[in-house]
Amino acid sequence: MRASLKVVKTTSETPDFVGTYFSIRDWSEEDRPREKLIRKGKEALSDAELIALLIRSGSRNESAVHLSRKILLSVDSLNALGKLSITQLLKYKGIGEAKAIAIIAALELGRRRRSEDAAQLAKITSSKTVFDIMQPLIGELPHEEFWVLFLNNSNKVISKSQVSKGGITGAVVDVRIVFKLALEIGATGLILCHNHPSGNLLPSDADKKLTKKIKLAGDSLDVKVLDHLIITEAKYYSFVDQGIL
Question: H-type helices in the chain, by residue range?
Answer without folding.
Answer: 33-40, 47-55, 64-75, 78-81, 86-89, 97-119, 127-138, 175-185, 205-221
